[in-house]
Amino acid sequence: MPTRLDTRRLGASDLDVTAIGLGCMSLSGVYGACSDDDGIAVVHAALDAGVNFLDSADMYGWGQNETLLAKALKGRRDGVVLATKFAQVRQEGGGNGVDGRPAYVIAACEASLKRLETDRIDLYYMHRIDPKVPIEETVGAMAQLVRDGKVRHIALCEASPATIRRAHAVHPLAAVQTEYSLLYREEAEATLAVTRELGIGFVAYSPLGRSLLTGSVTGPADVANDRRRDHPRFAPENLERNRQLAARLGDLARAKGCTAGQVALAWVLAQGQDIVAIPGTKRVERVRENVGALDVRLDAAELSGLAAAFPKGAAAGTRYPAGQMKTVFI
Ligand SMILES: NC(=O)c1ccc[n+]([C@@H]2O[C@H](COP(=O)([O-])OP(=O)(O)OC[C@H]3O[C@@H](n4cnc5c(N)ncnc54)[C@H](OP(=O)(O)O)[C@@H]3O)[C@@H](O)[C@H]2O)c1
After folding, report:
1. Assigned CATH for 7-218+260-298
2. Catalytic one of 31, 60, 124, 184
3. Do 122 and 84 contact (CB within 8 A), yes or no?
4. Is the pTM here over 0.90, yes or no?
5. Would you kindly state where each structural domain of the chain is located, as residue ranges?
6. How would you class 27 by CB atoms within 10 Å of its CB: exposed for 0-12, middle for 13-18, buried for 19 or more?
């Protein structure tokens, strides 16, 4: 029997999710190779540890991630809150586009249901906002999926406060998913102001700063062969500054007898009961370590010490490369 972990409710939905979920993106080779067998073992380790919240997207491995989850969830689907996403599309000639047209929403959902081998998606996100399509039209189609019983609850990623308000007026959002960690707080905290006002849950992605906050990256060579090399925070001119910031977590972690990554996760979870975090890993032992963050308590002095050690805007380098920065928080 899996361990029973404390859960948090997402907004006004009936989704009670473990405060630490499993981000499944890196099971698709984004941060280095991961075989399907290893990916399935990671998902099983998370479920065995009591995690009930799995985060996928149709564009992680362009379908492979959802197919992998279908295999991993054979006989284990009940009790899992399965989240996936649509809207990012491959463009001819390379690069990703965004499609929020209602007909696309319906087709994308059908394709995800088929790959996931399930009859319902518990939480369905729009992965990026499509500036070409009024959000009301996209959310209208997502609401239709709820009425049709294909989706239980809907959500947005990387939406600005104004977009969140417009979407929520059409159909209640259970959650908004945005990057949030000690390294990158500004947009998340602006988002939190509106999700709190409207009673929407907040899902913190990349809560380990895409690995930086764990202290496991020692230099550019560690990320030379994966997607992180394109992220400004890992660029040689920024990496050392970010590593020095992250080192401040190590001191507190040693004093508390836990790891730096656990402190980073505990900090996110301490920012409010409306927040859950979805760290990703392709290693079984790190799944257990990340779940262990639920046992790390930070007192008021530790929280304010961390806020002072990581002032807002302290990270060197933007959250995404320049082109992708135009597609977030809109
Ligand atoms: N909505 C969006 O636009 C969006 C964008 C990005 C991510 N996400 C979601 O958020 C999830 C998490 O984000 P993320 O994977 O980008 O970043 P993250 O969770 O902040 O960091 C993942 C990285 O940290 C490493 N790591 C994890 N646990 C560790 C530990 N205990 N000790 C040392 N290193 C550790 C992993 O390496 P190993 O695999 O080698 O352990 C991986 O390189 C994704 O899986 C995805 O589901 C959503």
Report:
1. 3.20.20.100
2. 60
3. no
4. yes
5. 7-218+260-298
6. buried
DSSP lists the bridge partners of residue 90 as 96
Contacts 24+ apart (CB under 8 A), 104-108: 105/138, 105/141, 105/142, 105/145, 106/141, 106/144, 106/145, 108/58
Query: Is 159 in contact with 167 (CB distance < 8 Å)?
Result: yes
Interval 260-315: pLDDT, tens: 999 999 999 999 999 999 999 999 999 999 999 999 999 999 999 999 999 999 99
Q: What is the pLDDT of residue 1?
A: 52
Atom of ligand 1 nearest to the CA of 56: 47
CA distance 278 to 24: 9
Per-residue buried b or exposed e for 184-201, using 16+ beta carbons within 10 Å of the residue's own CB: bbebbeebbebbeebebb
Residue 26 CB–ligand 1 contact under 6 Å: yes
Q: Which residue has the tokens 């540890």?
A: 49
Q: Does ligand 1 come within 6 angstroms of the Cβ of 210?
A: yes
Sequence-distant (6+) residues with CB within 8 A of 296 are 256, 258, 262, 263, 265, 266
184 flagged as catalytic:
no
Give the tens place of pLDDT for each residue, 63-96.
999 999 999 999 999 999 999 999 999 998 888 9
CA of 65 to the centre of ligand 1 (A): 14
Q: Are 184 and 209 in contact (CB under 8 A)?
A: yes
